[in-house]
Amino acid sequence: MSASYILKRIALIFYTLFIVSLLVFGITQVLPADAAVMMLGENATAEALEALRNSMGLNDPIWMQYLRWTGGVVQGDFGTSLRTGQPVGPALFSALGTSLTLAVFSLTFMLALALPMGVVAAIQRGKATDLFVSFLSYIGVALPEFVTATLAVLFIADWWGILPPAGYVPLSQNPVEGLRHLVLPVVVVSIIMIAHVSRMVRSELVDVLHTDYIRAAHLKGLSRGRILLRHGLRNALLPAITIVALDVGYLLGGVIVVEEIFSIPGIGRALMAAIQARDLPVIQAGVLIMAATYSIVNFAADLFYAWLDKRIQYD
Amino acid sequence: MTDFLRRLLATPQGLIGSLVVVLVLFAALTGAWLAPHDPDAMAALARYKAPGGDYLLGTDQYGRDILSRILSGARSTVTMALLATLLGTLLGAVVGTGSAYLGGRWDEAIMRTVDAVMAIPSLLMALLVVSLLGASGANALLAVAIAFMPGMARITRAVALTVRKQDYVSAAVARGEGSLYIVLREMLPNVIAPIVVEMTIRVSFAVMLFATLSFLGLGAQPPAADWGLMVSEARQYLHRSPWILIWPSVVIAITAIGFNLLGDGLRDALNPRT
Predict the structure, then answer these.
(1) CB distance from A252 to chain B under 8 Å?
(2) What are the pLDDT tens digits along chain B (274 aa)?
(3) Nearest-CA residue of chain A relative to B17?
(4) Which CATH class is domain B2-270?
(5) What's the CA gap between B86 and B83, in Å, rounded?
């Protein structure tokens, strides 16, 4: 892994954010929403609206508005919410913290289940366990989050009363209650990823177990457990890193739905509210922050992969 | 063709997937006539009925027959998912094959831009497009197609690049075949197979994405008999009668599983090596 590869990857993150910023700015420019009307209300006089538009720079050419917005973003200023009148940045970053808590727990939970499931299915290929795991994964992939969330709330929260049906308690405030509130959202948002990743791990490991070097290890007389751990898993789990990183994009989408259903004050819920209220600065900043999170996670995964697998020589 | 069908139906995924998909397509074509009741007829005296008797799957909060609503909703749900996948694939194929054809720096620039767009989650992309165009079924279709575009562009590009380098294409060129023959007889069949597999699996994703958009209030609008919308509306009446919610959820899941299984079956059947 050379320094120029890392630099190239970092340049790619900035290119990604540049494209996303153009896209989201373009979309919000075309959105049928008038910031001045939103701030002053429907009954404002034409003169007052015009004066506000002038002071907000809404009458400037679009490229000037874009440069002003990105100039602010680079300095950490994401603008002011049209709905609340508060600065967008601090509110969204604290919401991002909540979402990341949910995301990190979900990823951990997903890996803890998906990896063993995939490995066991690959070892027991064609037997009942394998069929059972693929049966589960077909069902898991086919259930949208809003369906699993609603059913989970119905059975586990309402009928059995084991867990709270909605809401969020910060872990720093009350760890026990915080975790209890996180269980259902974490499970719901993980299901599709568990199904996807366990299938990927299974097929990678099945491929690896059929390679010549595994056969050679068998012929050398190594024990099955040693072959599986030292040769099979090492080579099968490496590609899983990339797959998991790409799934983070899916996770961020799922987080939107789950936060909405379980009333979790994260960035997904903030974005949904902003989209419904046509709160342009919040939409712009929210999409940009989500894209940045995705890019940084994938960058980290690539570095991790290259560090683990010394054979890879990127240029 | 019969040989291909036999291979497809020989695998359990292919067999079950084909059966479910044929059933779903049949419901989409004839569901409106098969429905035992008028899907929009309200009956004040027959609200929240449990499954059984005159109402096979029960009735909803307005006394509408759930089975009839599911059957008549099949057409819009399935047609929308198929059309959105098709449109997304076409848009993606233009970008992907164009990029592969141009090659070099253009290819690099186009693919890095496609990667950049993929940093926006598909659901968020669809939400943005719908909020731009207004909440309606047709706009949701366009939104899902646009959300699918970058992924399909990557796949078509990868496929087009590998096929172009294959020996049988070089052999056809060496034999002196015309470009039309090479494109139609040598390249196209090999390009189409992986794309059809990907499309089939994407249809199930599209069904779920549409349902989610409707659920969030940005897809089909009431009183449409849309499956996602039915789940969304039923949540309020969960405690009165969970059946209103469970049946459309089950149908969404079965449809998604069916297309997933068929996709995997097609992959095995089109790729006899494994």
Answers:
(1) yes
(2) 678 788 888 888 889 999 999 999 998 888 777 777 777 777 766 677 777 777 677 777 777 888 888 888 888 888 889 999 999 998 988 888 888 777 789 888 999 999 888 889 888 988 888 888 887 888 889 989 999 999 889 888 888 888 777 788 788 888 888 777 777 777 777 778 788 888 988 898 899 888 888 888 888 887 888 888 888 888 878 777 788 888 888 999 999 999 999 988 888 887 655 4
(3) A138
(4) mainly alpha
(5) 5
Q: What is the pTM of this model?
A: 0.85
Q: Can you tell me the distance from the alpha carbon of A246 to that of A295, in angstroms, rounded to the nearest whole number?
A: 10
Q: Which residue type does B186 have?
A: E
Which tops the pLDDT comparison, A113 or A311? A113
The residue written with tokens 């008549």 in the block is B72
Reduce the DSSP state of residue A151 to 3 states and report it: helix
Burial class (CB in 10 A: 0-12, 13-18, 19+), A199: buried
Closest C-alpha to B145, from B102, B75, B95, B180: B95
Phi/psi for B136 (5° steps) reads -165, 165
The answer, for A24 touching chain B at a CB cutoff of 8 Å, is yes
How far is residue A158 CA from its own chain's centroid? 28
Determine the Cα–Cα distance for residues B241 and B49; give it in Å rounded to an integer.
8
Chain B residues in contact with A150 by the CB 8 A cut-off are 231, 235, 238, 245, 249
Let me know: does B263 contact B17? Beta carbons within 8 Å.
yes
Q: What is the mean pLDDT of chain A?
A: 84
Residue B65 pairs with which residues in a beta bridge? B59
The set of residues, in sequence order, having a beta carbon less than 8 Å from that of A71 and lying 6+ positions away, is none
ipTM score here?
0.85
Spatial contact of B253 and B247, defined as CB atoms under 8 Å apart: no
Delimit the domains of chain B by residue range. Answer: 2-270
- For chain B, the residues whose C-beta falls within 8 A of a C-beta of chain A are 112-113, 115-124, 127-129, 131-132, 204, 208, 211-212, 215-216, 228, 231-232, 235, 238-239, 242, 245-246, 249, 252-257, 260-261
Most B-contacting residue of A8, A15, A16 (CB-CB within 10 A), to test interface: A16
Select from A15, A143, A147 the residue whose CB has the most chain B CBs within 10 Å, as the one to mutate to test that interface: A147
